[in-house]
Amino acid sequence: MVPVLLVLLLALILFGAGFALKALWWIAIAVLVIWLLGFLLRSTGAGGKRARWYRW
Q: Phi/psi at 46 (nearest 5 deg)?
């Protein structure tokens, strides 16, 4: 009975990790798209130079 429970527990852990990793991939893609849009649509600063849209 214990090996069956361990296999079921392992399956649940792997399923949860797979779901979490897939969700993290979608979040990473969304952040990349937002970053690219901010990079391409940044405003021009003083002197006609393009201003940085981030603070660092």
A: -65, 140
Q: Which string of b and e fits 26-43 if b means at least 16 CB within 10 Å? A: eeeeeeeeeeeeeeeeee
Q: Which residues contact 38 (CB under 8 A, 6 or more apart)?
A: 53, 54
Rounded to two decimals, what is the model's pTM? 0.56
Q: Locate 7 and state its tokens.
A: 């296999």
Distance from the Cα of residue 11 to its chain's centroid: 25
Quote the Cα angle for 45-49-54, to 5°: 60
Query: For the chain, how many residues are written?
Result: 56
Alpha helices in the chain (DSSP H): 2-40
pLDDT higher than threshold 80 for residue 16 = yes
